[in-house]
């Protein structure tokens, strides 16, 4: 059973949004049933996403132009960490892939166990439902990254993360695009944030797949990861 909304008043969901007008209001309304504090960062959308967010009940912050998911996350974290009573933070996708019950499970662990950040993973159980190209790309990223293996992270590009105020206060994402996921891993290692993983369910719908990682973006992720790995040696 999901916890009452009042029990989650110290939690802020940070949702980066780019051209998600079709689904963002429904995603937010469903999450608001459990989490009263949600900030959506409209990253220069051109499809009416901002109007949809305004009607959903979430806080809205807007970028005048598209800066990239990393920039939207950083803006959202900065907004959330400045709010009174904010103690726990969640990065949550706008396309409906992430599940509220997974957030609750991760928060329960973060409140009770000695971790600063918990990262969602698709690879602790049966991963056959993950599209083949995506599965190959994500596993290759781990294979070429000694840092990921050292941290025992199997899915660094999973956008569902739960973390405490220490992490939020120290988070400083500088890579605006998809490279931010690798940068967050670098921060975990460099700042000695205590980290673990949690198996999560990713809901792959026709809509989310049409918005999902293309092969070209997958190659970009691999290139970025390889470049960052070699630059740290």
Write the layout of secondary structure elements.
Blueprint: E1 11-17, H1 24-32, E2 38-43, H2 49-56, E3 59-63, H3 69-81, E4 88-91, H4 100-112, E5 117-121, H5 132-143, H6 146-151, E6 161-164, H7 165-170, H8 180-190, E7 195-199, H9 206-211, H10 215-231
Parallel strand pairs: 1-2, 1-4, 2-3, 5-7
Antiparallel strand pairs: 4-6, 5-6
Helix pairs in contact: 1-2, 5-10
Structural overview:
It contains 10 helices and 7 strands. It has 233 residues and is an alpha/beta fold. It has one domain: Spore Coat Polysaccharide Biosynthesis Protein SpsA, Chain A (Alpha-Beta Complex). Strands 3-2-1-4-6-5-7 form a 7-stranded mixed β-sheet, with helices on both faces. β2, α2 and β3 form a beta-alpha-beta unit. The radius of gyration is 17 Å and the shape is globular.
Tell me briefly what this model is.
The protein is of the alpha/beta class. It has helices spanning 24-32, 49-56, 69-81, 100-112, 132-143, 146-151, 165-170, 180-190, 206-211, 215-231, and strands at 11-17, 38-43, 59-63, 88-91, 117-121, 161-164, 195-199. Pfam families: Glycos_transf_2.
List keywords for this structure.
Glycosyltransferase_2, 233 residues, single chain, Spore Coat Polysaccharide Biosynthesis Protein SpsA, Chain A, seven-stranded mixed β-sheet, Glycosyl transferase
> Which term fits the overall shape?
globular
Main sheet makeup:
7 strands, mixed
Number of helices: 10
Instruction: Label the CATH architecture.
Output: Alpha-Beta Complex
Domain tally: 1
Mean pLDDT: 85
Fold-level CATH name: Spore Coat Polysaccharide Biosynthesis Protein SpsA, Chain A
N- to C-terminal separation? 47 Å
Give the H and E element order.
Answer: EHEHEHEHEHHEHHEHH
The CATH class name reads Alpha Beta
> Within the largest sheet, what's the order of strands?
3-2-1-4-6-5-7
Which value, in Å, is the CA radius of gyration?
A: 17 Å
How would you describe the oligomerization state of the chains in this entry? single chain
Pfam families: Glycos_transf_2
Protein name: Glycosyl transferase
Family: Belongs to the glycosyltransferase 2 family.
InterPro entries: Glyco_trans_2-like, Glycosyltransferase_2, Nucleotide-diphossugar_trans
């Amino acid at each position: 059973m999901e916890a009452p909304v009042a029990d989650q008043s110290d939690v802020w969901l940070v949702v980066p949004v780019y051209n998600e007008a079709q689904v963002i209001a429904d995603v937010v309304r469903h999450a608001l049933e459990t989490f009263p504090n949600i900030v959506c960062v409209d990253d220069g959308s051109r499809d009416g996403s901002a109007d949809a967010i305004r009607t959903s009940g979430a806080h809205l912050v807007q970028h005048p132009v598209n800066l990239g998911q990393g920039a939207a996350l950083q803006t959202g974290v900065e907004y959330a960490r400045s709010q009174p009573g904010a103690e726990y933070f969640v990065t949550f996708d706008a396309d409906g892939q992430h599940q509220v019950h997974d957030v609750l499970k991760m928060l329960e662990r973060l409140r009770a166990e000695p971790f600063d950040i918990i990262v969602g993973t698709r690879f602790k159980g049966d991963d056959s439902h993950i599209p083949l190209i995506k599965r190959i790309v994500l596993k290759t990223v781990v294979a070429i990254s000694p840092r990921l293996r050292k941290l025992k992270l199997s899915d660094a590009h999973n956008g569902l993360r739960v973390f405490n105020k220490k992490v939020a206060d120290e988070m400083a994402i500088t890579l605006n695009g998809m490279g931010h996921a690798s940068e967050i891993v670098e921060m975990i290692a460099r700042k000695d944030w205590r980290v673990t993983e949690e198996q999560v369910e990713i809901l792959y719908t026709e809509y989310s797949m049409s918005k999902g990682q293309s092969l070209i973006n997958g190659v970009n992720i691999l290139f970025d990861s390889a470049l960052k790995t070699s630059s740290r040696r």
